[in-house]
Amino acid sequence: MNSLLTPLEFEKSIYQIEDKIEELKNLSADSGINLDDQIKILTEQATEYKKQLYSHLSPSQKLLIARHPKRPSFLDYVSLITTDWTEFHGDRAGTDDKAIIGGIAQIEGKSVMLIGTQKGKTTKENIEYNFGMPQPEGYRKALRLFYHADRFNLPIITMIDTPGAYPGIKAEQTGQGIAIAVNLREMAKLEVPIISIILGEGCSGGALGIAVSNRVYMLEHSYYTVISPEGCASILWRSADMASTAADAMKITAEDLLKLGVIDGIIKEPLGGAHYDWDLIASELKNTVIETLNEMSNMSGEHLKKDRYDKFRRMGVFVE
């Protein structure tokens, strides 16, 4: 385990085993006693235990991983998978919402438009990025960049990690609902490939406002839902303390949403979560993007629009 990471409650037993392994290694080094066999056995047991633990996580446990403050953010992925990044600012109406960031970059020599919700890793950063909760000007900035990408035939890649659009009075006064609604409508009309990836939290219209896409992928331990489990619990049980029960019932995990046809694929995370190996998860994400862009490279603008339309029309259709 990375000693710089604080264990989640359900991970503490793993840390105890790995602390014991470190103790044996230090004892062996200090005393000269060969403890390689004991260390090897404990290491194998720890690895097997981790595999079992992380392959049988409950939705509420995945929720904790999705919200881990050390998970790589949108800008981290930009630096890890792209070159020649140029950020575009502002909605051309006098404001620049830092909760949504966008710009042009290259991935393996191909120019793309990247747009994502940005969270911070410290309190200061979270205040700067409004905890990843966009305001109307953020969605208007994203819309401007969608139009720019469509005009210059640039594939669009959006990365989402948000607890939802900002619910404050100012956001309502300046048109939060209409800003998101316009994005939904206009994204459906774009004639370039659109790929969306849920990095951690994908909550409510705040997520969907930049996710009307041809292909939607989720990181293995992310979640995607119409309302947060806490919000759901507050409505149904009048208590956010029931969030774990709500999470179990809401089908918010990548596995559930893939079965329901809401998403198109799952990007495998390193053992324990994306925050344990940034390079590995960035490589997996980059490979997924490249493969998907190649898949859609020969689709015409009309074909891309129809593909997007058909994708969303299929959702919620069941045969009894």
Which secondary structure elements does this structure contain, and how are they paired or packed?
Elements: H1 12-31, H2 36-54, H3 59-66, H4 74-81, E1 83-88, E2 100-107, E3 110-117, H5 123-128, H6 136-151, E4 156-162, H7 169-173, H8 176-189, E5 194-203, H9 204-208, E6 215-219, E7 223-225, H10 229-236, H11 243-249, H12 254-259, E8 265-267, H13 278-296, H14 301-314
Parallel strand pairs: 3-4, 4-5, 5-6, 5-7, 6-8
Antiparallel strand pairs: 1-2, 2-3
Helix pairs in contact: 1-2, 6-8, 10-11
- The overall pLDDT average reads 92
State the major sheet: 8 strands, mixed
CATH superfamily of the largest domain: 2-enoyl-CoA Hydratase, Chain A, domain 1
H and E string: HHHHEEEHHEHHEHEEHHHEHH
Characteristics of this structure?
320 residues; 8 strands; single chain; 2-enoyl-CoA Hydratase, Chain A, domain 1; 48% helix; alpha/beta; eight-stranded mixed sheet; globular; 2 domains
What would you say this structure looks like, in words?
The chain has 320 residues and is an alpha/beta fold. It has two domains: 9-56; 63-314, 2-enoyl-CoA Hydratase, Chain A, domain 1 (Alpha-Beta Complex). It has 14 helices and eight strands. Strands 1, 2, 3, 4, 5, 6, 7 and 8 form an eight-stranded mixed beta sheet that branches. Strand 5, helix 9 and strand 6 form a beta-alpha-beta unit. The longest helix is centred in the first third of the chain and has 20 residues, at 12-31. It is globular, with a radius of gyration of 21 Å.
